Amino acid sequence: MDAVSAHEIDTATGQDAPAELSSERVKDIFSHIAKKYERFNAISSFGAYKAWLAGMARQAPIEAHHDVLDIAGGTGDVTFTMARAKKPAHIQCTDLVPEMLDVARMHYRDGASHGVPVDFEVVDAQNIPYPDASYDVITMAYGIRNMPKREQALSEMFRVLKPGGALVCLEFSTPPNTIWRALYGFYLKHLIPFWGGLITGDREGFVYLSSSIKAFPNQEGLAKLMREAGFANVTWKNYTGGIAAVHVAVKPE
Q1: Containing structural domain, residue 239
Q2: 126 and 154 in contact (C-beta within 8 Å)?
Q3: Greatest CA separation for the chain
Q4: Global pTM exceeds 0.90
Q5: 58: Cβ contacts below 8 Å, ≥ 6 apart
Q6: pLDDT digits (tens, 9 = 90+) for 18-27
Q7: How many domains does the chain have?
Q8: CB 29 within 8 Å of CB 212
Q9: CATH code at position 234
Q10: What is the pLDDT of residue 157?
Q11: Is 16 exposed, middle or buried (0-12, 13-18, 19+ CB in 10 A)?
Q12: How far is residue 64 from each of residues 17, 61, 99, 134, 137, measured CA to CA in Å?
């Protein structure tokens, strides 16, 4: 096993652990909450997630002729945001959890892509089943945090991007302001499980999600992982005081 694929963690703690522990937990949680996931996002973020998605679209260097790969595409929020805002030639929407993609397919049938062709496939981003240099841009929201083999996942994304292509990643992050960070910590510990339990009935699943956010690297930590995978020109922009951040990383020509 090479150095890239060897490092496996428990995504709830950031500590070394077999990858299967986190992968099975993530599949179990999201398969159960798939139909209520969008409602949870809207309520728990007080609507802010829409602004984060809009910011992600503004930062994404997607052009009309591009083929886009959406990693951890879930119920299609990012896919359909990019379809409406950027009108690429095609989007491949992928996720680890079939039940999440079932919701995305329903939205697609209802016209959510505004005419942009979208295909859907169950994919583990730690082993992407596509050829080298297949995609112009990769998008990913709330995905890398739930992957126990993050270095391998980023290496795979780097591999399937065309030279000059970009990875655009929206993820929960660390507010730089001390007071705001403390308030956010209280919100994660108490309100995320509360809202999750109330909306989906799965409080424990959202205890995990809260823990995974707290254990995730900060903005610079994620940028470092991207650079180590080979990406260059890694930048990020904070949203809502750093609760979320959008990183953009480029595969060198």
Answers
A1: 3-250
A2: no
A3: 48
A4: yes
A5: 85
A6: 888 878 887 8
A7: 1
A8: no
A9: 3.40.50.150
A10: 98
A11: exposed
A12: 42, 10, 30, 16, 12
